[in-house]
Specification:
By secondary structure, this protein is mainly alpha-helical. It has helices at about 5-10, 15-20, 25-35, 40-50, 55-80. It has one domain (about 5-80): Orthogonal Bundle (434 Repressor (Amino-terminal Domain)). Helix content is about 70%, strand content about 0%. The longest helix has 24 residues, at about 55-80.
């Protein structure tokens, strides 16, 4: 599950999740949930614990793969135009 989906289901805003997680701010949470940045490994573990396992390593890996695929496809689409 993506962090964004988890937070929507739980009714959490960036500030509330940052507070739950500790050691990070709402701006970092915003970047993570929209896939603009990825948390480091220790933070991924903390997120997995804070979400009861609903947002885990495999979810971050899938999000990372999708982001990379999007970046690779974007130049190819631009060249075709």
């Amino acid at each position: 599950m993506r962090l964004l989906d988890y937070m929507r289901e739980e009714g959490l805003d960036d500030e509330a999740f940052a507070e739950r997680l500790g050691e990070c701010g709402p701006y970092a949470v915003k970047k993570w949930k929209y896939g603009e940045r990825e948390p480091d490994a220790s933070t991924i573990v903390r997120i997995e614990r804070a979400t009861g396992g609903r947002v885990g390593l495999t979810d971050w890996a899938a999000q990372s793969d999708a982001r990379k695929a999007k970046r690779v496809a974007a130049p190819a689409e631009g060249a075709a135009a």
